[in-house]
Amino acid sequence: MKEKDENIIINEQDLFNFIFYPESLSADKKTIIAADKTLIAALEFYQQLKNNANREHNDSLKRMIAKKIPVYTLTNVISLYPLKNPTIERHKEGRLAADSIDLTPKMTTKTFVDNEREYLIKVLSYEVATKIFVFSTNDEVVKNFDIIIEPQNLRFHFDDNTVPLEIKQAIDAARIHIDFIK
Q: What would the pLDDT profile of 6-44 be if each residue is shown by its tens digit?
């Protein structure tokens, strides 16, 4: 995502961990993230997500009921919907003529969350590739699941969410589902 030092690279996972699990980051990464004013909107987004994650959720309640009542079964599919991305403030400095040659962005970002805000998926689409990060706001490693990307109905398997999925094509997702495999 951003290269702040020739040896230290700050990525989306680092921003997520900075808010949710700061103890997992090195002191250098914490210092770089805290000092970078361009990351304020993203950090505020994750902070708000963390604050909302501490509430009792409908899905959590359903899981508790399913444990107590064997007839009550849960679906293994969770739907995630796009969030509006925070906008980055641009300085109103003049634009050079050379800057206006290519106005299409080299990378786009979309964030998806479920209704209970227990899962977050970040889709980074580059010109010819896509990276998909899957996060759990409950500090858990999510294992053995597929994601289904709509409207193309593309299905990709994750053994776990510790590394992002890298796809050799640009993808524009409208909605994403997580399908847990039993």
A: 678 888 889 988 998 899 899 999 999 999 999 999 899
Pair of tokens at residue 52: 């909302």
Q: Evaluate whether 174 touches 124 at the Cβ level (below 8 Å).
A: no
The model's pTM is 0.60
The CA distance from 73 to 67, in Å, is 9
Helices assigned H by DSSP within the chain: 12-20, 27-35, 40-53, 58-68
Is the C-alpha dihedral spanning 59, 65, 67, 72 positive or negative? negative
Residue boundaries of the structural domains of the chain: 2-53, 74-180
Amino acid at site 155:
R
Dist. CA 142–CA 156, nearest whole Å = 14
Distance of CA 65 to the CA centre of its chain: 29
Q: Are strands 143-150 and 107-113 parallel, antiparallel or unpaired?
A: unpaired
Residue 43 DSSP class:
H
